[in-house]
Amino acid sequence: MHKHLCKSVKNKIYIIIATFYFKLRQIIKIYLRMKKLTYLTFSLFSIFSFAQEVSKERINTVISTLASDEMKGREIGTQENENAANYIAKLFKEDNLAYCTGNSYLVPFTYKGKTVYNVCGVKKGKTDKYLGFSGHFDHIGTNNKSGDNIYNGADDDASGITTLVGIADYFKSKTPEFSMVFMAFNGEEKGMLGSSAIAEDKNLDKIYNNLTALFNFEMVATESQFGKNAVFMTGDEFSDLDELFNKNAVNGLKINADPYAAEQLFYRSDNVNFVKKKIIAHSISTADMTKIKHYHQVNDDVNIVDFDNMTQIINNFGKTLEKLNPNNFTPKYTDKVIFN
């Protein structure tokens, strides 16, 4: 009796141990599966986060193409200027932008009896309120001197075009709160002709009537006097755009006050043609006017470009713009601005 009882107890113990071992194996398998899933999820998130950023290589490609010797300074009225317009249109197509008007990104106007083009594309957001991004792609062409005679205009203003293209790249697979309009102006160097023409284009009134603000990028290829990851805004005393932007800015990005207020840069760039329409419009720049030696010189080429800084600014601009919506971003002009 005693012998059979011991054997029975032993069997029960074996069963308990076997059950425990089986359960433990199941728990370990589930843990390893969850750990693998967590790692996979983290990896996918990391890949997605990296993929949504604009690469330095992409920025290099765009600005190097626009500022190449083959573009011969992109002077308005030349074939190279039209080539630049077509290249920007190609980039807009790659970013799946819609046409602003008609059946083309190219928006024609007349210069000295010849048809020339601005370039315009639209990104539809969750609302009908728009943010605008612009720059000018023309420059001053060439001179007749021997040696390097091409004014490549890498900073002025291939960098501005590259920045707005970078923002379009950033939002290619996203749906922002604001809709977005991207405008590459022609003829800035001849008196802001392209921005004047497109600002008065009645076919775009539906956009302009809902345009909350326009960021006009003008010479953003170098480090500003405020350091890395920093820009300044012309005419900062005329609106609260910079204050509202900075409240939402990420990773230390900052729009600084205009350090050259006496130069009246606010009224001397393409943004002014939208100011006349009482649309909030400022130029954004990094140009350190106290040190700059390449303005309208043949050495304004890709060698002066700070690609790391441009990449940082473009991506941080994109991340900040993701946080903006028609409720938290409603800039207004002060009573100091002159609309005429």
From TrEMBL:
Name of this chain's protein: Peptidase family M28
Any one GO molecular-function label of the UniProt entry: metalloexopeptidase activity
Domain of life: Bacteria
Domain Peptidase M28: 118-316
One family name in Pfam for this protein: Peptidase_M28
Gene Ontology biological process terms, A to Z: proteolysis
Species this chain originates from: Chryseobacterium soldanellicola
Taxonomic lineage of the native organism: Bacteria, Pseudomonadati, Bacteroidota, Flavobacteriia, Flavobacteriales
